Amino acid sequence: MTRTKKLTVNKAALSLIFFAVVLSAVVIAQSNGGVLSMHYNVGTTEGRVAYLAANGWEAEPDTETEQTVVLPRVFEGIFADYNGLQRQQGFDLEPYAGLSVTVYNYQITNYDSADTVYATLYFYKNRIIAGDIHSTALDGFMHGIRRQ
């Protein structure tokens, strides 16, 4: 004799809720090392500085610069390489190709380098979509936001 189980509406709803919770936990764990911009009010200077601090960087709020840029429609050359860096850290600029985005820069004060070092954060609709840490030296460096 075999038993069959009925899938009731309540059981189906509970299963969907459970699946959504598990999926959310996976996304949070995989997105930018678990440090999501939604955990900070990145619409303010203090929130952006806190986001950088959560990633290991001390940013000087008084050095903030803001500009609006239009991303290229097609990513080629250096910009394709830059987006490769972004993909490595869980971002991707391709969905924003051709759109205007806001870029914030902050001087970093805790980088072990004689060079001047900046953090750059790209935003679209108050959401961080990319970022990097870089030096201003001619033979400088650039890497992702997370502290290495």
| Rg, nearest Å | 20 Å
Q: How many DSSP E strands?
A: 5
Distance between the termini: 61 Å
Low-confidence stretches: 22-35
Range of strand content: 25-35%
Order of helices and strands: HHEHEEEE
Task: Please outline the major beta sheet.
Answer: 5 strands, antiparallel
Structural class: alpha+beta
How many individual helices? 3
Measured as a percent range, the helix fraction is: 25-40%
Strand order of the largest sheet: 1-2-3-4-5
Average pLDDT taken over every residue: 83
Shape summary: elongated
Count of structural domains: 1
Attribute tags:
single chain; 148 residues; alpha+beta; 5-stranded antiparallel beta sheet; 3 helices; 5 strands; 30% helix
Would you give an account of this structure?
Mean pLDDT is 83; it is low at 22-35. Helices cover 30% and strands 27% of the residues. The chain has one domain (31-143). A hairpin with a 6-residue loop joins strand 4 and strand 5 (142-143). It has a 5-stranded antiparallel sheet with strand order 1-2-3-4-5. The longest helix is centred in the N-terminal third of the chain and has 22 residues, at 9-30. With 148 residues, the protein is of the alpha+beta class.
